[in-house]
Hints:
Helix 13 (about 325-335) packs parallel to helix 15. Among the domains are: about 10-280, no CATH class; about 285-360, Up-down Bundle (Monooxygenase), CATH 1.20.1280.50; about 415-530, YVTN repeat-like/Quinoprotein amine dehydrogenase (Methylamine Dehydrogenase, Chain H, 7 Propeller), CATH 2.130.10. By secondary structure, it is of the alpha+beta class. Strand 8 (about 390-395) and strand 9 (about 400-405) form a beta hairpin. It contains 16 helices and 39 strands. The strands form 11 sheets. It has a 4-stranded antiparallel beta sheet, with no helix packed on it.
Amino acid sequence: MRSTPSVPLTIAELQLSSPLPSPNRQSTGYVQHHHHSHPPPPLLHSQQQLQAQPQHNTHFNNITHTEATSSNAVVLPQLHFDPPCSLNPDLYPLANAATPSAMKRFKFQMDGKQGSASTWDDERSYKRAELESIEDIEQTNNTALQIPTSANSTYSPGPSYATAEAMADIIPDSPNSALPSPVSDLDHEDPWQEDDVMNVDSIDPSVATTDITTTTITSTPTITTIPNNSIHNSTLLEPSSLFEMFDILPDNIQTYLMFQLLKRSPRNALRMANATIMQVLKKDIVINLPSSVAEIVLSYLDIRSLCRASGVNRSWKQLIDNASEVWKLKIKQSGFVPTSSERLQNSYKQIVRRHIIMRRNWRRNLHHKMLLEGHEEDLVTCLQFDDEKIITGSDDHSINVYDIKTGNLKRVLSGHDGGVWALQYVGNTLVTGSIDRTIRVWDIEKGICRFILRGHSSTVRCLKIVMPSKIVNPDGSITMEPSEPIIVSGSRDMTIRVWRLPDLEKEPQQPLSTCLEDDVISQRFLKYKLVEHEHSVRDLAVYGNILVSGSYDNNVIVWNIETGKKVHILKGHTMKVYCVAIDPKRRHCISGSLDASVRIWGIDDGECKFVLQGHAILVGLLGLIDDCLVSAAADATLRIWDASNGDRLYILAGSNGHQGPITSFQHDKFKIISGSEGGVKMWNTQTGELMYDLIEDVAGVWRVCFDERRCIAAVKNEHKTQLIVLDFGVHGLEGETN
Length: 738
């Protein structure tokens, strides 16, 4: 196909941008028929120069608009611009941008039928062929329109085109109309919107004047041309006239005109327009949501993302800081265990921040060290602490209570006639078991013994305080078990006793009994005496109403402490059982023995599920957190197992490992703290690697335990017993309330 130089190839360049389609050939005849009585509506090309455009361009020249009942006319100015193809794309980034197809399509009705019109480039080929038949149209000087620019004009004249008469001869069915011809090859499957359709049949051709030609459309704005000499150029360029003209244009014409202006705008103008538009259109979705919905959205972010989001702006920071339910959820998801004082003094977000810093200090071994003296040279048999106090039991018959912040010895609880070998407290109630065969209940704050529970005939080797808690049963139901607070004690006399835990607030103060014969208080608190083992009861584990006991008779027994009945006797170990644990998630119990094995049993059926072998000698300690089972033995090693299938994951040993029997350990899903001759070590639970030697150069480690913030070890050093407190909640938290 041949292109004629300087000839516009789009119908948009030959027609006004009106929402109406071009009239048919009879319309042209109507204009010629009235030529002598009324001057024909002058074409755009007969009044001014046209603008050439590579894509689809619409020119507005001396255009007026009237309603059916209005005589006011708004005049469009002459818009002369350099063609986009001649603009430097570096300075005019949109100069060569293609016009979006949505701007080039118009919809109309004719004879009650819907139709579509597209740009000249989409029209039937015969129309384009008509243009191609014209050679060197710029040489037609007699018909070319030359509009001189005024002296004060700031725009550039466009190229010259043929006169209106010449154009009318070339394209007789495309007179001075705002739209392409209704003949179209658009995809007829495109959806139509009824409310956007323009009714061509409503045109009233009788409305015309000698000076101004208007086209009236029912409920539709009309755009037409007026003679160039009817209105002065200064009026056209008045800003108010420009704005009024733009306001009355149909939406699709406004969009098209705006796009063409942007194509001719330099980069700095586009940048300014973009900044203004983005600022207006910008909308903060999160802030505009209801707070409850916004918190649900925020709950899907991790802690790091929440902290970053709080730095977006003040509104986000305020929203995130006050999203208490979100931070409460993060505490649970992260496994943080805030203390009672932390809950009272800090918001949930502050609690998360504190524990993240403390967890980081653990990884970097950043701690403050404090030494506490006590128990002289005697063995520390049991240890428990919280964020206020440390309580230790010793073979010297005493219980020491320390202030954990200052390290001062607050009080010494005396009364037992033998070494204290078992200890646990809940709130203000402390329960201890001793070689003197008694169990004592203490008021910690007052430092006095409130009750002595007698009945065991030998050393009370182990005990547990069990508080009612929500238990998820195999059928999915939830119950509170046990029905009341209880004490479970195991003794070398081969028995287990279940006691009601005295309520120190409700129970009246009574004189302490001096012997079993006149002891009526013990009988009042005793619930059950469990007799089945044939040797000393070495360890106990409790979950709800499930009690598991391990004995030197090589057996493990499962009990129901609500009824006091035996459920299963688990036989399989060939030597003494030293430790037991319960896996409530899988309804399993676990036992470690002198036969160097670890066995996993089914609580419901009593069957042995797995036998974990690898230790060389006595397995004296067990710990279970989630799916991570850890065993510690007298062979100086610790082993990490998968509790779900019994697979061994890691062995914690080697040249950097412990050199003697493991005497104490505790673990969570991040770390394992273990003690033995020589010191205390910290291991990585996820990899089994040694992280740090927390305590070195000590003769022995009796007990070690930790919480989120502190690690406390009872050690023998230089022929005396000491408590070493490692506080990981100091670095990075200086000046904060601890």
